[in-house]
Amino acid sequence: MSIDNLDTVKQLIAGKECGRVEFKETTGQLERGMETLCAFLNGEGGTVLFGVTDKGKIIGQEVSDKTRRDIAEAINRLEPVAMVQISYAPLPDSEKKVIAFHVENSKLNRPFSYKGRPYMRVESATTTMPQTAYNDLLLQRDGNRYRWELLENRNLTLQDLDANEVLKTVRLGIECGRLPEDTGTDVPVILEKFGLQKNGVLNNAAAVLFGKHEDMEYPQCLLRLARFKGTDKTVFMDSQRIQGNFFQLLNAAMAFIFKHLSLSGTTDTLEREEHLTIPYKAIREGVVNSLTHRSYKEAGGSVGIAIYDDRVEIENPGTFPPNWDAEKMKSEHESKPQNPLLANALYKRKVLESWGRGIGLMMSECRKAGLPEPEYRIWSDSVTLIFKCEVTNRPSTDQVPTKHRPSTDQVFALVKILDERELSVKEIMEALELNHRPTFRTNYLHPALDEGYVIPLYPEQPSHPKQKYRLTEKGLELLKQQ
Length: 482
Fold this sequence. Notes:
This protein is α+β, with helices and mostly antiparallel strands.
């Protein structure tokens, strides 16, 4: 792009300073100009104009041999070597000129640095690039071989993985038609097919998906959960930290959300339907996306879910693909998972949809429920998804008399599953689509037992091999009240 005349300069100025154009009065600001040029190289390209004020007034500057030498030396400090087009647009009836530095999109060579430091553009401001963003660009440049999920862990063995969870993934994948009937039940073979094991060595993705994390060193497989009083972080009402594999964290997240978001009921059909304050499909999609597409590289990173009186925030480490903004996310877009191995296994299990439909689903579900569309706040090294709603301090079901009202919606869900049946723990968990036994016992079974809605068939032998659970009279009365 040649910028050797004032007409071209004026066209650039008409757009004012933005993500791809910067004004500097003179090359006395050469250092700041070069930092911005470096940021343009790490973005989609752009132009730095010297001889233009912040308000877009063309004043030009004198160009001496020293000016040209300083420019050449500054450009040589860019790493790797960059193609910078330098143009001089003369002012009429003057010795002064507007100096233009222009760079095209150079994404195949990113990240760039100036004097050993990388820069990036945030709206119309230039800032130092965080280490995580720099590493992400390195990974994009150097291909897939350095992706964290692909890295081998020779200390990881099959005994460290939950084989039942692997087989459940296969069963659900076959049921939904995303895996062939002959996938088999040989766990090592399945892991090889999913790309989670190569030549007998497991990788990080296998640990995230199926690991038994009690004895494993994956501190980033952490979920932080909090319910705050009011609209800030001053007062905690509830706080939990859960360590586990993907499915354990997903179960724990949804259990916590059910615990603290109110339920309402409708009877438009023959059966009563329960609805969360935020539509279930929308909030679950937000949690799934945060766990799937987050950055796992940093050991100190974790997903956090914070519930306030007026909103729910889901925060995860990592960023969207380069050049994505809020408008692109709302429109139809391609799917570019940060962790393709994780995304592939979750797609096979029908936990995750492909083709970039998740964000659109969240928007649609919230609109149908009369709620504002969820918002994304994109920071330099993290993303926060915000659902705005009114959250009450204690979930309730208005149709149930106070003396029979269960303490949590998980208890009521368990009561509905049992109805007039006798079921084992495994059968109840499958019906509730849960697979993390400690979460089930803590949030469902134990409260239901304590409140007298459920009773075991063998109360004197809690670990009886044929142990099952049924509703008490109080539990049956609760169902009748519905």
